[in-house]
Structure formats: structure tokens, C-alpha cells
Write a structure and sequence with these properties.
This protein is an alpha+beta fold. It has a domain of 103 residues. It has 5 helices and 11 strands. 15% of the residues are buried. Pfam families: Pkinase_fungal.
Length: 310
């Protein structure tokens, strides 16, 4: 499940099942949480068994977890993806060129951020994904999962600009607000940036963004089981050759698993219960194409100091 969801950007969630002897369990995996059903005997509960398979067999692609706004295409003998982004009442299409960043994690839950270098095209079907718009201008496409109802990157950027506009108005009435900048010799620069609005050039410009699918909410009847995949008890091996290397290795692995279980149990107290909030897919287009921090030859950070900017 982890490999499928992490390697295929089209997946929003997925279902699965496990069978142990005659006991069957149904699984649901998403970016917000993972759920497993109470096991049932598939040889006795025939109706439940048939219901599960018919539900999966007749489900639509969207119902089994495929995002209908991401399309896989073959471009120049390479697998690429065409993302749909709603903007000002119309749908725009962006074909990926190469991956700029993808979070490397074995976890399923979380943001799972992907950043692509992309280009706008006419569509995804037929040869439309080959027809580039705006002269093939490259952009950065970011695709991630946010907690439902949380602020987006565009919300945060707009809030920063609104705050800077508020500072601009305060400076008009009280120029002493920028006295702290005299120490650095940058007062004139800050005044010019505020007057002209050119401070926006210090931020990557968001061309458009959109909110998409929301994962299923956690069932109220479900119960968290943080120790689900950790052995319940330390078990001794029953091998007759207790001195063998394989026996010693097994004993060591069981000891490690037992210690991890105790550590998890001590760490996950009732007061630290995890909140499994539904996740919403969020997608945005940057006009500029940056690069990941690990690829930068050097890092330069610019800080604003002074209580007047707080």
C-alpha cells in the first residue's frame, strides 16, 4: 500500500484485504488514516465475502481511489502526468517534465508533497498533451495534502502582503517605525519597496491554486490501535538447535520487537491521542521554477529585525 500510494501520484486512497487461514480483513489506506475491519470467516460469512468483491468489482475508478484530475500520459517514451488546475472558472492543464522534489517516506499518512517542473498544455487526451501553450513557459507545480480546513500557501502569502500593506500605511503616519533600519543602512531600500510594492518580488508568485478531493473521515465507532503491528508478547523459539545462528537472530529480532512495543506503549498515552483529521488535496502553480534546498550550492537567508514589524 505504501509503495502504491507513494509511487503513483494519481492515487488518493486505496482498499485492500488480507486473508489468514479463513479469516479475512478489509483495509482502507489514505493520507489521513488507515482502517482495518474486524476479521470475519469467509467460509461462514459468504454474503459479506461476496459483498466486498462485488463492491470493488463495480466501483468506479474514483471510488477505488484514483484522482480524476491527474492523467498518466506517454510523452517522448517517458511516463508523465497531466494535472488539472481550476483557475478563474476554467480548467487548465499542466504536463510534468521532471520531478523537482518528492518526500521520501514509508509512511502513508501525511502531506506527501510533490513538486514538479511542468509546462501548460491544451489537454490530456489524444495529442493535446504535446501541444504546449505560452511558448512552452516552464512553471513549478506543487501537489500536497493539507488538513481539511487549514490555511493554504496562497492564504498565507496573501496574509503576508496584507500585513506589509498595513505597515506601509503606518509608515506614512509615523516614519519612526523604520528607524531600526538605519542601523543596517537599508532604510531607503525598505521605503522604496513599500512605496512601489516591489517587495512582492522577494516571494515566489503563485499563478493559480485549487483544492480537490477530501479523504474519508474517521468512523466514530473506530478505535485507534497504535500497537497493531508490534508483537504482543515476547516468544521463545521452539527450535531444537538453540545454539544455531538462525535461532539467535530470531531471538534478537523478537527482543527488539518486544522493546519497541514497550516503547510505543509508554509513549502513546491516552493524553497524547492522535487526531486523525481528514486530508484535502491541494495543488498550486508557481510562475518561477526553483530547486530543492539540497541542490543549492549555498544558502542565503534574509531576516527582518525590529519590533515595528512584529
Amino acid at each position: 500500500a505504501s509503495q502504491i500510494l507513494n509511487n503513483d501520484p494519481r492515487r488518493t486512497w486505496m482498499y485492500g484485504f488480507t486473508v489468514e487461514n479463513t479469516m479475512m480483513s478489509i483495509w482502507y489506506f489514505s493520507r489521513s488514516h488507515t482502517v482495518v475491519s474486524t476479521p470475519f470467516d469467509l467460509t461462514k460469512e459468504i454474503k459479506s465475502f461476496i459483498h466486498v468483491f462485488l463492491s470493488l468489482l463495480y466501483a468506479t475508478r474514483e471510488e477505488i481511489g484514483y484522482d480524476p484530475t491527474i492523467h498518466q500520459v506517454l510523452h517522448d517514451d517517458e511516463t508523465q502526468y497531466v494535472y488539472e488546475v481550476a483557475s478563474e472558472g476554467e480548467t487548465r492543464y499542466f504536463r510534468t517534465i521532471k520531478s523537482l522534489f518528492t518526500s521520501q517516506t514509508l509512511r502513508i499518512t501525511g502531506r506527501k508533497t510533490r513538486v514538479w517542473k511542468a509546462v501548460e498544455v491544451e489537454g490530456y487526451d489524444g495529442n493535446k498533451h504535446r501541444k504546449e501553450k505560452e511558448g512552452g513557459r516552464e512553471v513549478a507545480l506543487k501537489d500536497c495534502w493539507l488538513d481539511e480546513g487549514s490555511r493554504t500557501e496562497k492564504d498565507n502569502l496573501d496574509a503576508i502582503f496584507e500585513s506589509l500593506e498595513a505597515v506601509k500605511e503606518k509608515v506614512k503616519h509615523d516614519s519612526k517605525i523604520l528607524d531600526w533600519a538605519d542601523l543596517s543602512g537599508n532604510r531607503q531600500l525598505f521605503e522604496d519597496l513599500l512605496d512601489t510594492g516591489n517587495y512582492k518580488g522577494y516571494f515566489m508568485e503563485i499563478e493559480c491554486d485549487t483544492k480537490l478531493a477530501i479523504t474519508k473521515s474517521q468512523l466514530q465507532s473506530s478505535e485507534p490501535v497504535p500497537e497493531f503491528l508490534v508483537p504482543l508478547e515476547r516468544e521463545e523459539t521452539s527450535s531444537g538447535n538453540e545454539g544455531s545462528q538462525s535461532t539467535q537472530t530470531t531471538q534478537l529480532l523478537l527482543e527488539i520487537a518486544h522493546q519497541r512495543r514497550n516503547a510505543v506503549r509508554d509513549r502513546l498515552k491516552p493524553s497524547a491521542a492522535c487526531e486523525y483529521r481528514a486530508k484535502q488535496r491541494y495543488r498550486l502553480i508557481y510562475k518561477e521554477v526553483g530547486r530543492p534546498l539540497y541542490a543549492a550550492p549555498n544558502l542565503f537567508f534574509f531576516f527582518f529585525f525590529g519590533g515595528a514589524w512584529a
